Amino acid sequence: MLRGLYAAGSGMIAQQRRQEMLTNNLSNVNTPGFKADQASLRTFPNMLINALGTDHQQAFGTNRVGELATGVYMQEQTPNFRQGDMQETGNSTDIALLQGLVPQDDDTGQDALLVYEILNNDGEIRYTRNGNFTIDGQGFLTNSQGHYILGVDGDPINVQNENIRVEANGQIFSNANELLGQINVAVVADPSQLVKEGNGFLRYDGENDVITAVDNAAVTYQLQQGFIERSTVDTAQTMTEMMNTLRTFEANQKVLQAYDQSLERAVNNVGRLG
């Protein structure tokens, strides 16, 4: 009976974590460049049950009863890195990244991901798909939290003011047609090695080097000024999954309550007989 308690309890924990993931997805439905997470649920190893002290072995030549599931857990949550829809804003500092031809990973067959390079508060390189940029007081191109966007030379880009023109290859020109810099677009060969850190930041934990897409014959892309990439969260689908998760949680909860009531009656009855 205790095994049943563990199985129902693990199911409740797994569904709670899945619900938290879906809630976070829904809260970022309007976050530019946000990639919705997907959950992978796995079962714990099954136990092989044998019968002891019965006539089962004599009748059938074996004492094997069967397998017993021992519970479920949420193994991982993986972002859906597909291209989001484009939304026009008309803002000169909003720059959407449209991914074209990219190489595939030999092991997984997954397409590489194109991302912007950005500096976090510790001066470390992070990556993002959020092209909702702005300009700080010193004239540098930054994200909405004030972190520098890096150019092809690895340095922050000083664009002076918002009167800029951004070409499809990321080159930035002033109104006087002066070249101010070029936004770097990085190629992450295995997107599964990217870890979300919040604020749209992605940390790369892979072993292979992250290369640039600029002047790379194996990669095609386009930067579109005045647009942002929308989140990949599907509101209707997410709401449906949240309802299903809640129902599954409640079903496990009822099983857990039934086991609890059975244990309570067993303890009380045994106590009276003693």
How would you explain this protein's 3D organization?
The mean pLDDT is 87. A hairpin with a 2-residue loop joins strand 15 and strand 16. The chain has helices at 2-27, 56-60, 235-273, and strands at residues 37-43, 47-50, 64-68, 72-79, 86-88, 95-99, 113-119, 125-128, 133-135, 141-143, 164-166, 171-174, 179-182, 185-188, 194-198, 201-204, 211-212, 221-225, 227-229. The protein is built from 3 helices and 19 strands. Helix 1 runs antiparallel to helix 3. The chain folds into 2 domains: 2-79 and 233-273, no CATH class; 86-229, no CATH class. It is of the alpha+beta class and 274 residues long. It has a 4-stranded antiparallel β-sheet with strand order 8-7-14-17, with no helix packed on it. A 3-stranded antiparallel β-sheet has the order 11-12-13, with no helix packed on it.
